[in-house]
Amino acid sequence: MTDNTARTTAPAALTPWLWGLPLAAALWVAIYWHLSDLADLLVSAAGLSRTTHWGEAVHFFLYDTPKVLLLLTGIVFLMGVIQTFFAPERTRALLAGRRLGIGNAMAASLGIVTPFCSCSAVPLFIGFLSAGVPLGITFSFLIAAPMINEIALALLLGLFGWQVAALYLGMGLLIAIVAGLIIGRLKMERYLVL
C-alpha cells in the first residue's frame, strides 16, 4: 500500500463518526429533556398514579436512573475528548517555570480537566518534580486532580443545580491552591529524594 492510499482511506474511515457525533448529541439532548415525560408515560402505562407513594417511587426510579446514566455518558465522552489534548507531557510543559500563585491556580485548574486519579497522579508528581515544576505548584495539581472530579461536577450540576456544583468546584480549587501555596512557602524541595 502506498503512502497516498493510506492518506485517502483514513479520512474516509472517520466520516461515519463525524456524521454520527452530531446525531448522537441531538439524540442525547432530546432524551435528556424528555425524561420526565417518558417517566410519566411509563407510570401511567403501568396503571400507577404519582399521587401514591408507590407511583412516585416508580416515577423517581424511571426518571432519575436514566438521567444519571445520561449525565455520566455525556461527561465521560466530553472529558475523553478533552483529555486527548492534555497528555502528561503537555501538562508538565505548561506548569514548568511558573511562579507561585499563578502556577498554583493554573495547576489546580489543569487538575480538573486532566484524566489523572490519585493512583496515576503519584507518578505524575514525580515526573513534574523531575521536570523542575516547583513542589507547591505540583501539590496544587496533585490535590485538585483526584478531588475535583469532572463526573461528580456534572452530576452535581444536573441533580442539584449550578449553585451546589459551583460550591464544589470553588471549594476544591480553593483547597488545592491554598494547600499548594502553603507547601510552596515552606520550601521543602531540599527534603525530596528523587
In which range does the helix fraction lie? over 70%
What proportion strand? under 5%
Low-confidence stretches: 5-10
- C-alpha termini separation: 47 Å
Shape: elongated
Would you report the number of β strands? 0
Largest sheet: none
Query: H/E element string?
Result: HHHHHHHHH
What count of structural domains?
2
Oligomer: single chain
Structural class: mainly alpha
Mean pLDDT: 78
Rg over CA atoms, rounded to whole Å, is 23 Å
Helix tally equals 9
Describe it.
By secondary structure, this protein is mainly alpha-helical. 79% of the residues lie in helices and 0% in strands. It has helices at residues 3-33, 35-45, 53-83, 88-95, 102-113, 118-130, 135-147, 150-160, 162-185. α3 (53-83) packs antiparallel against α8 and α5 packs across α9 (162-185). The radius of gyration is 23 Å and the shape is elongated.
Name its key features.
194 residues, mainly alpha, 9 helices, 0% strand, elongated
Structure summarized in a few sentences:
The chain has about 190 residues and is mainly α. The chain is about 80% helix and about 0% strand. It contains 9 helices and no strands.
Itemize the secondary structure elements and their pairings:
Layout: H1 3-33, H2 35-45, H3 53-83, H4 88-95, H5 102-113, H6 118-130, H7 135-147, H8 150-160, H9 162-185
